[in-house]
Amino acid sequence: MRQIRLNAFDMACVGHIQHGMWTHPRDTSGDYARLDRWVDMARTLERGLFDGLFLADILGVYDVYQGSPAPSLRASVQIPLIDPIALIPAMAHATRHLGFGVTCNLAYEPPFLFARRMATLDHLSNGRIGWNIVTGYLDSAARAVGLSEQMAHDDRYDIADEYMHVVYKLWEGGWRDDAVIRDREGRVFTDPSRVRRVQHEGKQFRVDAMPIWEPSPQRTPVLYQAGASDRGRVFAARHAECVFVNGSTHANVRRIVDDLRARAGARPIKVFAGATIITGRTEKEARDLLEEYRRHTSVEGGLAHTGASMGVDFDRFGMDEPVDASNSQAVRSNIDAMASAMGPNWTKRNLIDRFVLGGRQAPIVGSAEQIADAMIGWVEKADIDGFNLSRTVWPECLTSFIDLVVPILQERGVYKTGYEPGTYRDKLFGAGDHLPATHPASAERWMA
Protein backbone atom coordinates (compact mmCIF):
# COMPACT_ATOMS: atom_id res chain seq x y z
CA MET A 1 0.00 0.00 0.00
CA ARG A 2 1.37 3.40 -0.98
CA GLN A 3 1.79 6.14 1.61
CA ILE A 4 -1.19 8.51 1.69
CA ARG A 5 -0.31 12.14 0.98
CA LEU A 6 -2.25 14.96 2.64
CA ASN A 7 -2.76 18.64 1.94
CA ALA A 8 -4.99 20.99 3.85
CA PHE A 9 -7.18 22.76 1.28
CA ASP A 10 -7.97 26.33 2.27
CA MET A 11 -8.36 29.88 1.08
CA ALA A 12 -7.53 33.26 2.61
CA CYS A 13 -11.19 34.03 3.21
CA VAL A 14 -14.09 33.28 5.56
CA GLY A 15 -16.22 30.86 3.51
CA HIS A 16 -14.35 28.44 1.25
CA ILE A 17 -16.04 25.15 0.16
CA GLN A 18 -18.65 24.30 2.82
CA HIS A 19 -20.74 27.45 3.03
CA GLY A 20 -22.33 28.79 6.18
CA MET A 21 -19.92 27.14 8.62
CA TRP A 22 -18.60 30.56 9.68
CA THR A 23 -21.88 31.09 11.57
CA HIS A 24 -21.10 28.20 13.92
CA PRO A 25 -20.22 29.55 17.40
CA ARG A 26 -16.97 27.54 17.59
CA ASP A 27 -15.74 28.58 14.14
CA THR A 28 -12.94 31.16 13.97
CA SER A 29 -12.75 31.59 10.18
CA GLY A 30 -13.54 35.28 10.67
CA ASP A 31 -9.90 35.66 11.78
CA TYR A 32 -8.77 35.02 8.19
CA ALA A 33 -6.88 38.36 8.05
CA ARG A 34 -4.84 37.73 11.20
CA LEU A 35 -1.34 36.46 10.50
CA ASP A 36 -1.10 34.50 13.74
CA ARG A 37 -4.12 32.43 12.62
CA TRP A 38 -2.14 31.22 9.59
CA VAL A 39 1.05 30.65 11.53
CA ASP A 40 -0.88 28.54 14.06
CA MET A 41 -2.41 26.60 11.19
CA ALA A 42 0.97 25.89 9.60
CA ARG A 43 2.38 24.63 12.90
CA THR A 44 -0.67 22.42 13.44
CA LEU A 45 -0.36 20.95 9.95
CA GLU A 46 3.31 20.21 10.55
CA ARG A 47 2.39 18.51 13.82
CA GLY A 48 0.07 16.32 11.77
CA LEU A 49 2.84 15.62 9.23
CA PHE A 50 0.82 17.07 6.35
CA ASP A 51 2.71 17.34 3.09
CA GLY A 52 1.38 20.77 2.30
CA LEU A 53 -1.10 23.57 2.58
CA PHE A 54 -2.92 24.03 -0.73
CA LEU A 55 -4.20 27.61 -1.00
CA ALA A 56 -6.93 28.36 -3.53
CA ASP A 57 -7.49 31.86 -4.89
CA ILE A 58 -9.70 33.82 -7.29
CA LEU A 59 -9.47 37.34 -8.69
CA GLY A 60 -13.16 38.10 -9.11
CA VAL A 61 -16.45 37.88 -7.27
CA TYR A 62 -19.09 35.19 -7.72
CA ASP A 63 -21.84 37.19 -9.39
CA VAL A 64 -23.50 34.64 -11.72
CA TYR A 65 -26.28 33.50 -9.37
CA GLN A 66 -29.16 35.99 -9.62
CA GLY A 67 -26.84 38.10 -11.80
CA SER A 68 -25.49 39.79 -8.68
CA PRO A 69 -22.66 39.57 -6.12
CA ALA A 70 -25.20 40.08 -3.31
CA PRO A 71 -25.69 36.35 -2.46
CA SER A 72 -21.92 35.85 -2.24
CA LEU A 73 -21.48 38.92 -0.08
CA ARG A 74 -24.27 37.92 2.30
CA ALA A 75 -23.00 34.35 2.71
CA SER A 76 -19.28 35.26 2.55
CA VAL A 77 -18.67 32.98 -0.42
CA GLN A 78 -14.92 33.48 -0.90
CA ILE A 79 -15.36 37.19 -0.27
CA PRO A 80 -13.79 39.07 1.46
CA LEU A 81 -10.53 37.52 0.28
CA ILE A 82 -6.89 38.51 0.75
CA ASP A 83 -3.79 37.59 -1.27
CA PRO A 84 -2.53 34.15 -0.13
CA ILE A 85 1.04 34.76 -1.33
CA ALA A 86 1.56 37.37 1.40
CA LEU A 87 0.90 34.74 4.08
CA ILE A 88 3.48 32.19 2.96
CA PRO A 89 6.78 33.69 4.21
CA ALA A 90 5.49 33.88 7.80
CA MET A 91 4.17 30.31 7.69
CA ALA A 92 7.40 29.05 6.14
CA HIS A 93 9.43 30.80 8.83
CA ALA A 94 7.36 29.09 11.54
CA THR A 95 7.84 25.58 10.07
CA ARG A 96 10.62 23.42 8.67
CA HIS A 97 8.97 20.84 6.43
CA LEU A 98 5.48 21.90 5.38
CA GLY A 99 5.05 22.65 1.67
CA PHE A 100 2.91 25.48 0.31
CA GLY A 101 0.95 25.14 -2.92
CA VAL A 102 -0.45 28.53 -3.92
CA THR A 103 -2.95 29.26 -6.68
CA CYS A 104 -1.85 31.96 -9.13
CA ASN A 105 -3.73 32.90 -12.28
CA LEU A 106 -1.37 33.10 -15.25
CA ALA A 107 -3.88 34.89 -17.47
CA TYR A 108 -3.41 38.31 -15.91
CA GLU A 109 0.27 38.65 -14.94
CA PRO A 110 3.42 38.97 -17.11
CA PRO A 111 5.59 35.82 -16.92
CA PHE A 112 8.72 37.70 -15.81
CA LEU A 113 7.11 39.27 -12.74
CA PHE A 114 5.42 36.03 -11.76
CA ALA A 115 8.59 33.95 -12.19
CA ARG A 116 10.50 36.33 -9.94
CA ARG A 117 7.83 36.20 -7.24
CA MET A 118 7.78 32.40 -7.15
CA ALA A 119 11.56 32.17 -7.14
CA THR A 120 11.59 34.56 -4.19
CA LEU A 121 9.14 32.38 -2.27
CA ASP A 122 11.17 29.28 -3.08
CA HIS A 123 14.30 30.95 -1.72
CA LEU A 124 12.61 32.24 1.44
CA SER A 125 11.02 28.85 2.19
CA ASN A 126 14.19 26.89 1.37
CA GLY A 127 12.51 25.05 -1.47
CA ARG A 128 8.99 24.45 -0.18
CA ILE A 129 6.87 26.21 -2.81
CA GLY A 130 4.36 24.79 -5.25
CA TRP A 131 2.22 26.56 -7.85
CA ASN A 132 -1.36 25.61 -8.65
CA ILE A 133 -1.60 26.61 -12.31
CA VAL A 134 -4.95 28.17 -13.18
CA THR A 135 -6.23 30.15 -16.15
CA GLY A 136 -9.33 31.58 -14.46
CA TYR A 137 -13.01 31.06 -15.09
CA LEU A 138 -14.70 34.26 -13.89
CA ASP A 139 -15.82 37.08 -16.15
CA SER A 140 -15.70 39.33 -13.08
CA ALA A 141 -11.95 38.66 -12.79
CA ALA A 142 -11.40 39.51 -16.46
CA ARG A 143 -13.31 42.77 -16.01
CA ALA A 144 -11.24 43.59 -12.93
CA VAL A 145 -8.07 43.69 -15.04
CA GLY A 146 -9.59 45.65 -17.91
CA LEU A 147 -10.99 42.95 -20.20
CA SER A 148 -14.61 42.59 -21.23
CA GLU A 149 -14.85 38.86 -20.49
CA GLN A 150 -12.75 35.75 -20.02
CA MET A 151 -11.39 33.83 -22.97
CA ALA A 152 -12.98 30.60 -24.20
CA HIS A 153 -12.12 27.51 -22.14
CA ASP A 154 -9.72 25.80 -24.56
CA ASP A 155 -8.13 29.09 -25.66
CA ARG A 156 -7.08 29.68 -22.05
CA TYR A 157 -5.11 26.43 -22.11
CA ASP A 158 -3.43 27.38 -25.39
CA ILE A 159 -2.15 30.56 -23.76
CA ALA A 160 -1.15 28.59 -20.67
CA ASP A 161 1.05 26.27 -22.72
CA GLU A 162 3.04 29.21 -24.05
CA TYR A 163 3.18 30.85 -20.60
CA MET A 164 4.68 27.67 -19.16
CA HIS A 165 7.33 27.62 -21.87
CA VAL A 166 8.33 31.19 -20.96
CA VAL A 167 8.56 30.66 -17.20
CA TYR A 168 10.51 27.43 -17.71
CA LYS A 169 13.10 29.46 -19.64
CA LEU A 170 13.23 32.05 -16.85
CA TRP A 171 13.49 29.57 -13.98
CA GLU A 172 15.71 26.98 -15.64
CA GLY A 173 17.72 28.67 -18.37
CA GLY A 174 18.92 32.12 -17.29
CA TRP A 175 21.55 31.09 -14.77
CA ARG A 176 23.89 28.12 -14.91
CA ASP A 177 23.83 25.90 -11.85
CA ASP A 178 27.27 27.18 -10.77
CA ALA A 179 26.82 30.85 -11.73
CA VAL A 180 27.02 32.12 -8.15
CA ILE A 181 30.57 31.53 -6.89
CA ARG A 182 30.84 33.97 -3.94
CA ASP A 183 34.57 34.45 -4.39
CA ARG A 184 35.55 36.93 -1.65
CA GLU A 185 39.24 36.89 -2.54
CA GLY A 186 38.60 37.52 -6.22
CA ARG A 187 35.76 39.95 -5.47
CA VAL A 188 33.36 38.08 -7.78
CA PHE A 189 29.93 37.12 -6.52
CA THR A 190 28.49 35.90 -9.84
CA ASP A 191 30.42 34.75 -12.91
CA PRO A 192 28.97 36.88 -15.76
CA SER A 193 29.73 34.17 -18.33
CA ARG A 194 27.28 31.88 -16.55
CA VAL A 195 24.26 34.21 -16.76
CA ARG A 196 22.41 34.93 -20.01
CA ARG A 197 19.39 36.73 -21.38
CA VAL A 198 16.18 34.82 -21.84
CA GLN A 199 14.45 35.59 -25.12
CA HIS A 200 11.02 34.52 -26.28
CA GLU A 201 8.96 35.72 -29.21
CA GLY A 202 5.60 33.98 -29.32
CA LYS A 203 1.98 34.42 -30.23
CA GLN A 204 0.98 35.78 -26.80
CA PHE A 205 4.20 36.69 -25.00
CA ARG A 206 7.42 38.52 -25.76
CA VAL A 207 10.34 38.49 -23.34
CA ASP A 208 13.90 39.77 -23.61
CA ALA A 209 15.31 39.82 -20.10
CA MET A 210 18.05 38.55 -17.87
CA PRO A 211 16.46 36.92 -14.80
CA ILE A 212 17.61 39.03 -11.86
CA TRP A 213 17.34 36.21 -9.31
CA GLU A 214 19.76 33.36 -8.80
CA PRO A 215 18.37 29.81 -9.13
CA SER A 216 16.20 28.88 -6.16
CA PRO A 217 16.44 25.47 -4.45
CA GLN A 218 13.86 23.88 -6.76
CA ARG A 219 14.31 26.30 -9.68
CA THR A 220 10.76 25.55 -10.88
CA PRO A 221 8.17 25.23 -8.06
CA VAL A 222 6.23 22.00 -7.62
CA LEU A 223 3.55 22.18 -10.31
CA TYR A 224 -0.09 21.60 -9.35
CA GLN A 225 -3.03 21.70 -11.71
CA ALA A 226 -6.73 21.09 -11.18
CA GLY A 227 -8.18 20.77 -14.67
CA ALA A 228 -9.95 17.46 -15.26
CA SER A 229 -11.66 18.36 -18.55
CA ASP A 230 -10.33 16.74 -21.73
CA ARG A 231 -8.25 19.83 -22.56
CA GLY A 232 -7.23 20.18 -18.93
CA ARG A 233 -5.92 16.60 -18.84
CA VAL A 234 -3.82 17.22 -21.95
CA PHE A 235 -2.26 20.20 -20.19
CA ALA A 236 -1.81 18.34 -16.89
CA ALA A 237 -0.17 15.34 -18.54
CA ARG A 238 2.40 17.65 -20.12
CA HIS A 239 3.12 20.03 -17.23
CA ALA A 240 1.67 19.02 -13.84
CA GLU A 241 3.40 16.99 -11.16
CA CYS A 242 0.38 16.93 -8.85
CA VAL A 243 -3.23 16.97 -10.04
CA PHE A 244 -6.25 17.90 -7.92
CA VAL A 245 -9.53 16.16 -8.84
CA ASN A 246 -13.02 16.44 -7.39
CA GLY A 247 -13.87 13.44 -5.23
CA SER A 248 -17.10 12.41 -6.97
CA THR A 249 -17.22 8.58 -7.21
CA HIS A 250 -14.52 5.93 -7.16
CA ALA A 251 -15.29 4.94 -10.74
CA ASN A 252 -15.36 8.47 -12.12
CA VAL A 253 -12.13 9.48 -10.40
CA ARG A 254 -10.44 6.22 -11.48
CA ARG A 255 -11.38 6.95 -15.10
CA ILE A 256 -9.76 10.40 -14.87
CA VAL A 257 -6.67 9.08 -13.06
CA ASP A 258 -6.14 6.25 -15.55
CA ASP A 259 -6.32 8.74 -18.40
CA LEU A 260 -3.90 11.15 -16.71
CA ARG A 261 -1.33 8.46 -16.00
CA ALA A 262 -1.60 7.07 -19.53
CA ARG A 263 -1.10 10.51 -21.06
CA ALA A 264 1.86 11.30 -18.78
CA GLY A 265 3.61 8.05 -19.67
CA ALA A 266 6.83 7.54 -17.74
CA ARG A 267 6.59 10.91 -16.00
CA PRO A 268 5.36 10.49 -12.38
CA ILE A 269 2.15 12.26 -11.36
CA LYS A 270 0.53 12.36 -7.93
CA VAL A 271 -3.26 12.75 -7.80
CA PHE A 272 -5.06 14.36 -4.87
CA ALA A 273 -8.83 14.01 -4.47
CA GLY A 274 -10.85 16.67 -2.70
CA ALA A 275 -12.47 15.50 0.53
CA THR A 276 -14.26 16.89 3.57
CA ILE A 277 -14.06 14.83 6.74
CA ILE A 278 -16.12 14.86 9.93
CA THR A 279 -14.91 12.49 12.58
CA GLY A 280 -15.31 11.67 16.26
CA ARG A 281 -14.36 9.02 18.79
CA THR A 282 -17.42 7.04 17.71
CA GLU A 283 -19.65 7.00 14.66
CA LYS A 284 -22.49 8.45 16.73
CA GLU A 285 -20.32 11.33 17.87
CA ALA A 286 -19.40 12.08 14.25
CA ARG A 287 -23.04 11.86 13.09
CA ASP A 288 -24.15 14.15 15.88
CA LEU A 289 -21.47 16.62 14.87
CA LEU A 290 -22.66 16.50 11.26
CA GLU A 291 -26.24 17.34 12.32
CA GLU A 292 -24.92 20.18 14.46
CA TYR A 293 -22.97 21.57 11.49
CA ARG A 294 -25.93 21.17 9.12
CA ARG A 295 -27.93 23.69 11.08
CA HIS A 296 -25.49 26.33 9.85
CA THR A 297 -25.55 25.40 6.16
CA SER A 298 -26.10 28.15 3.57
CA VAL A 299 -27.96 26.92 0.50
CA GLU A 300 -27.73 30.40 -1.01
CA GLY A 301 -23.97 30.29 -0.60
CA GLY A 302 -23.80 26.89 -2.23
CA LEU A 303 -25.82 28.07 -5.24
CA ALA A 304 -23.70 31.21 -5.59
CA HIS A 305 -20.44 29.25 -5.53
CA THR A 306 -21.58 26.40 -7.77
CA GLY A 307 -23.26 28.77 -10.20
CA ALA A 308 -20.05 30.73 -10.71
CA SER A 309 -17.78 27.68 -11.03
CA MET A 310 -20.16 26.16 -13.58
CA GLY A 311 -21.11 29.40 -15.33
CA VAL A 312 -24.83 28.80 -14.68
CA ASP A 313 -27.37 31.11 -13.03
CA PHE A 314 -29.50 28.60 -11.14
CA ASP A 315 -32.05 31.29 -10.44
CA ARG A 316 -33.21 30.91 -14.06
CA PHE A 317 -34.25 27.28 -13.52
CA GLY A 318 -37.19 25.79 -11.68
CA MET A 319 -36.51 23.30 -8.91
CA ASP A 320 -37.27 20.30 -11.15
CA GLU A 321 -36.21 21.73 -14.51
CA PRO A 322 -33.13 20.07 -16.09
CA VAL A 323 -30.13 22.39 -15.90
CA ASP A 324 -28.47 23.19 -19.22
CA ALA A 325 -24.75 24.04 -18.87
CA SER A 326 -23.73 23.09 -22.40
CA ASN A 327 -22.55 26.57 -23.40
CA SER A 328 -20.59 27.37 -20.25
CA GLN A 329 -16.98 28.59 -20.49
CA ALA A 330 -16.37 28.07 -16.75
CA VAL A 331 -14.89 24.96 -15.10
CA ARG A 332 -15.79 22.18 -17.52
CA SER A 333 -14.63 19.44 -15.16
CA ASN A 334 -17.18 20.59 -12.56
CA ILE A 335 -19.95 20.37 -15.13
CA ASP A 336 -18.81 16.92 -16.25
CA ALA A 337 -18.51 15.71 -12.64
CA MET A 338 -22.06 16.89 -11.89
CA ALA A 339 -23.49 15.05 -14.87
CA SER A 340 -21.53 11.94 -13.93
CA ALA A 341 -22.76 12.01 -10.33
CA MET A 342 -26.42 12.91 -10.93
CA GLY A 343 -27.15 11.96 -14.53
CA PRO A 344 -27.50 14.12 -17.64
CA ASN A 345 -30.88 15.63 -16.66
CA TRP A 346 -29.99 16.76 -13.17
CA THR A 347 -31.98 19.60 -11.60
CA LYS A 348 -31.55 22.39 -9.08
CA ARG A 349 -33.35 20.22 -6.53
CA ASN A 350 -30.81 17.43 -7.13
CA LEU A 351 -28.03 19.93 -6.58
CA ILE A 352 -29.45 21.37 -3.37
CA ASP A 353 -29.93 17.85 -2.02
CA ARG A 354 -26.14 17.46 -2.35
CA PHE A 355 -25.49 20.56 -0.23
CA VAL A 356 -25.00 18.60 2.98
CA LEU A 357 -22.84 21.40 4.39
CA GLY A 358 -23.44 24.19 1.91
CA GLY A 359 -21.16 22.74 -0.77
CA ARG A 360 -21.54 20.09 -3.43
CA GLN A 361 -18.79 17.96 -1.86
CA ALA A 362 -20.53 15.50 0.45
CA PRO A 363 -18.49 14.89 3.62
CA ILE A 364 -17.03 11.57 4.72
CA VAL A 365 -18.46 10.98 8.19
CA GLY A 366 -17.55 8.39 10.81
CA SER A 367 -15.26 7.24 13.59
CA ALA A 368 -11.51 7.47 13.09
CA GLU A 369 -11.41 3.81 12.04
CA GLN A 370 -14.20 4.35 9.52
CA ILE A 371 -12.51 7.43 8.11
CA ALA A 372 -9.25 5.50 7.73
CA ASP A 373 -11.13 2.69 5.96
CA ALA A 374 -12.72 5.19 3.59
CA MET A 375 -9.44 6.92 2.77
CA ILE A 376 -7.64 3.64 2.12
CA GLY A 377 -10.59 2.55 -0.02
CA TRP A 378 -10.25 5.67 -2.17
CA VAL A 379 -6.55 5.03 -2.71
CA GLU A 380 -7.14 1.41 -3.68
CA LYS A 381 -10.24 1.86 -5.84
CA ALA A 382 -9.53 5.21 -7.50
CA ASP A 383 -5.71 4.91 -7.70
CA ILE A 384 -5.20 8.31 -6.08
CA ASP A 385 -2.15 9.28 -4.03
CA GLY A 386 -3.77 11.45 -1.39
CA PHE A 387 -6.31 14.07 -0.43
CA ASN A 388 -6.87 17.81 -0.30
CA LEU A 389 -8.88 18.16 2.92
CA SER A 390 -11.21 21.17 3.02
CA ARG A 391 -12.36 22.69 6.28
CA THR A 392 -15.74 22.72 7.99
CA VAL A 393 -15.74 24.33 11.44
CA TRP A 394 -12.29 25.76 12.07
CA PRO A 395 -10.04 24.76 13.81
CA GLU A 396 -11.68 21.66 15.27
CA CYS A 397 -12.03 19.97 11.88
CA LEU A 398 -8.24 19.88 11.56
CA THR A 399 -7.27 19.09 15.14
CA SER A 400 -9.79 16.24 15.42
CA PHE A 401 -8.47 14.68 12.21
CA ILE A 402 -4.86 14.93 13.39
CA ASP A 403 -5.59 13.65 16.88
CA LEU A 404 -7.97 10.84 15.90
CA VAL A 405 -7.39 9.73 12.31
CA VAL A 406 -3.66 10.26 11.75
CA PRO A 407 -2.64 7.73 14.47
CA ILE A 408 -4.91 5.09 12.88
CA LEU A 409 -3.39 5.68 9.43
CA GLN A 410 0.08 5.40 10.95
CA GLU A 411 -0.82 2.15 12.74
CA ARG A 412 -1.96 0.72 9.41
CA GLY A 413 1.32 1.68 7.77
CA VAL A 414 -0.17 4.05 5.20
CA TYR A 415 0.98 7.38 6.65
CA LYS A 416 4.44 8.65 7.56
CA THR A 417 5.66 8.90 11.14
CA GLY A 418 8.17 11.64 10.33
CA TYR A 419 9.32 13.91 7.55
CA GLU A 420 12.11 13.06 5.14
CA PRO A 421 14.70 15.79 4.53
CA GLY A 422 14.70 17.81 1.34
CA THR A 423 12.64 20.25 -0.69
CA TYR A 424 8.91 19.99 -1.32
CA ARG A 425 9.55 18.12 -4.59
CA ASP A 426 12.05 15.76 -3.04
CA LYS A 427 9.67 14.94 -0.17
CA LEU A 428 6.84 14.18 -2.60
CA PHE A 429 8.78 12.20 -5.19
CA GLY A 430 12.09 11.24 -3.56
CA ALA A 431 14.02 12.04 -6.73
CA GLY A 432 15.83 15.28 -5.96
CA ASP A 433 15.09 18.99 -5.90
CA HIS A 434 14.62 19.61 -9.62
CA LEU A 435 12.13 18.49 -12.23
CA PRO A 436 13.08 15.15 -13.80
CA ALA A 437 14.53 14.77 -17.29
CA THR A 438 11.13 13.51 -18.47
CA HIS A 439 9.56 16.92 -17.81
CA PRO A 440 9.56 19.51 -20.65
CA ALA A 441 11.11 22.17 -18.40
CA SER A 442 14.31 20.15 -18.11
CA ALA A 443 15.14 20.97 -21.74
CA GLU A 444 15.64 24.60 -20.67
CA ARG A 445 17.97 23.91 -17.73
CA TRP A 446 21.48 25.32 -17.94
CA MET A 447 23.58 22.69 -16.24
CA ALA A 448 26.99 23.27 -14.69
Brief synopsis:
The chain has helices spanning 35-47, 70-75, 88-93, 111-124, 139-144, 153-173, 230-239, 250-264, 283-294, 299-310, 332-342, 348-354, 368-382, 396-411, 424-429, and strands at 5-11, 52-56, 99-105, 129-134, 180-183, 188-190, 198-201, 206-209, 222-225, 242-245, 270-280, 364-367, 386-390.
Uncertain runs are none
* Largest beta-sheet details: 8 strands, parallel, barrel
From the coordinates shown, what is the CATH architecture?
Alpha-Beta Barrel
Rg: 22 Å
Beta-strand residue fraction = 15-25%
CATH superfamily: Luciferase-like domain
Provide structural commentary.
The protein is α/β, with parallel strands linked by helices and 448 residues long. The protein has helices at residues 35-47, 70-75, 88-93, 111-124, 139-144, 153-173, 230-239, 250-264, 283-294, 299-310, 332-342, 348-354, 368-382, 396-411, 424-429; strands at residues 5-11, 52-56, 99-105, 129-134, 180-183, 188-190, 198-201, 206-209, 222-225, 242-245, 270-280, 364-367, 386-390. The longest helix is centred in the middle third of the chain and has 21 residues, at 153-173.
